[in-house]
Amino acid sequence: MQIEDAAVKCRHCQRWLDPELDASLNADAPLVLLPPRTTSGLAIGSLVCGLFWVCGIGSIAALILGFLALRQIRREPLRIGGKGLAIAGIALGWLGVIGLALMISLGIYFWKAYKEHPNKPHSQQAHLTVADPRSVSPLPVT
Fold first, then answer.
1. How far is CA 31 from the centre of its chain?
2. Do the beta carbons of residue 50 and residue 89 sit within 8 Å?
3. How far apart are CA 71 and CA 85, in angstroms?
4. What are the φ and ψ backbone dihedral angles of 39, each rounded to 5 degrees?
5. Where are the alpha helices (DSSP H) in 26-123?
6. What pLDDT shows up at residue 116?
7. Residue 22: which H helix or E strand, with range?
8. pLDDT tens-digit profile of 71-102?
9. Are 110 and 123 spatial neighbours (Cβ–Cβ below 8 Å)?
10. For 86, phi and psi rounded to 5 degrees?
């Protein structure tokens, strides 16, 4: 909502828009106090899920919670904080998703390589030397 240029008094809070009038006429008006600003629980959850990867599930949860936290912070910026936490959770979530995709693609690559060239047991030639029975002396019998 915009305040018109010709307005002298705000129609919402009933305060004078001229600073000189405001100081003299609103001296006894109650102060407007904002509620304390809290950190978004969704932003904290996004960061925690991004830190604990848990086979990609944590990364996906970090992305979802981070985007929900940013929407919540955008809707109520005076009451809810934690934008940096939400952005950090989203960044960690994307890193986890990229890592998961990399692990899956490497797994498929090695699985296909194994299927094309399975490891066959390597046979080794045995080099046996047999002594000539005539050259061996019999064992003495005791």
1. 41
2. yes
3. 13
4. -85, 135
5. 41-51, 57-75, 83-116
6. 79
7. helix 19-25
8. 999 999 989 999 999 999 999 999 999 999 99
9. no
10. -65, -40
CA distance 74 to 23: 32
pLDDT in tens, 95-131: 999 999 999 999 999 998 888 776 666 566 666 666 6
Rounded (5°) CA angle 105-100-117: 25
Supply φ then ψ for residue 80, to 5 degrees: -125, 135
pLDDT at 50: 95
Separation CA 93–CA 54 (nearest Å):
11
Each residue's pLDDT tens digit, 3-55:
555 666 676 676 666 666 555 555 555 666 777 889 999 999 999 999 998 78
**Is the separation of the CB atoms in 79 and 37 below 8 Å?**
yes
